[in-house]
Amino acid sequence: MNEPVDLKRRRLVQLTGLSAVAATFPQFLFAATATSPPHQASFDFHPDVDLELTARPAYFPILSGPRTNVWKFYGKLLKGPEGSVQEIPGSFLGPILRLKKGQKVRIRFHNEVPAESVVHWHGLHVPAEMDGHPKYAIKQGETFVYEFEIMNRAGPYWYHPHPHWVTARQVYSGLAGLMLVTDEEEQALNLPSGDYDVPIVLQDRTFDSRNQLSYSDHMMTRMRGFLGDQILINGQAGFTLPVATRAYRLRLLNGSNSRIYKLGWDDGTALTVIGNDGGLLQKPETRPYIMLAPGERVDLWVNFKGRQVGSELVMRSLPFTVSMHGGMMGGGGMMRGGERGGMMGGGMGGGMMRGGGRGGMGGGMTGRGGRGGMMEGGMMSGSAIPLGSDYPVLKVRILREESDDSALPQRLSSITRYRLKDAVNSEQPKTITLSMRRMSALLNGRSYKMNDVAPDEIMALNSLQLIEFDNGFEGGHGMMMMPHPMHIHGLQFQIVKRSIKPGFEKAYQSVSEGFVDEGWKDVALVMPGEKVTLLKRFDDFKGSFMYHCHNLEHEDLGMMRDFLVR
After folding, report:
1. pTM of the prediction?
2. What digits encode the pLDDT tens for the residues 10-26?
3. Domains 197-400 and 420-565 share a fold
4. d(Cα 564, Cα 560) in Å, to the nearest integer?
5. Quick one: DSSP state of residue 209?
6. 185 phi and psi, to 5 degrees?
7. Are 348 and 328 in contact (CB under 8 A)?
8. Domain 420-565 homologous superfamily, CATH
9. How far apart are CA 267 and CA 116, in angstroms?
């Protein structure tokens, strides 16, 4: 069996070109075996866009010195508009797939990595068989043909593997890419385009002394979620965005395994949000900072007009509090990470420990330069950038003057709000409790099992459902409480309200102004002690659609279940 990440003592060896590899890895890294043969091209499906997407091992220069072994998606356009497949120069990330609402798309996924895999089209509304469910994972050397129509409105979506037990490792190894969908409504707005429309994928990674990806399998890491010690932008270390004195559109994706960002400019400039997971908002929204959890996207309008050529601006992740009551073994205590940093509570014992300063810009946005060892959750963190601490994320440098007469539209799109009274269960919401107990990550006390659907997970086709994610309202003493970014596959949802449990208000204040809940969402960050209520439709397609925590280590621990739409 095989593993995507070099764990300091094991190295992936590429033998001939990019198609032949030999590797030796532990058994547990394979996904569950597929339950049906791979889908092949349909004779009656006539695609507007036909492309190949191949996952295979590669050597890639990320840091100075030896190249890094990664797994990478490579794309090849067979039919369709020029530019539908756009590689990111110098990046191990997959190509950007640029698609349009209404297009019929065929994607021939070739698996050339030495492990089972499957591709999920995160945020897209597609049939169950096309959604990347783990039961459709294919072996090395096999091909799965995805065929679907782009039914989504304009927006930033993304694709990544979704095999059971090993999603975190495969994404960490490099298998991820952006999809940018457009439509007539968006095109009529004359938003910044071309070089002024900048995709930005945020990820964190840890490298060993040979520049190889390092990943910990320690149970505490899995319970907390993996935190790297370098921030990468579009798969590159030490990235600086060159800009002119004009308006830009910055489209950010949090592609990290578990890291949550609290994004804000270092000079205090407010952030202007024009879109999120499901595309454009109805109107621009202003935030002092933005919370961006794994899987979430945000679309920013940024105008650099009036800034001095040669000056720099830094987007930082600002400090915030993460409240964890009870801890792994029922212990108490608080631990601080970062000089200004966020609280990390619980862990396996009590006490208080402090470590690390704000960190500098050097070393490829590492946040290193602290004053001591980092402690997190009662165990050594292993990351120089603890969750909730203060560190740089993206440096922007003003390189040139440029005239620009573009204006921020005051109306961006039309969004019809769901009505609570139209939900089939408006008086009895489906409550999903999030818990971490006895080294398990659970939903309503259940771990993931293939083809295991409880009665409360059956959804009527073409129904509107009221759903609550409960992260602590029903929690008991001794439960480890962490933030959970909850993702539901299929149609996107609308957030109705957020409620915070007494005793958690102070911690909540450090993040509460950063939620962009307007418009359409497919990931909702649920903080400790919080309940998030949403409305979601289950239309068009029958079958199994997953819902899970997008902290990928939590997902692999079992914090994932299926809704059965019938």
Report:
1. 0.87
2. 333 333 333 323 332 33
3. yes
4. 13
5. T
6. -60, -45
7. yes
8. Cupredoxins -  blue copper proteins (2.60.40.420)
9. 46
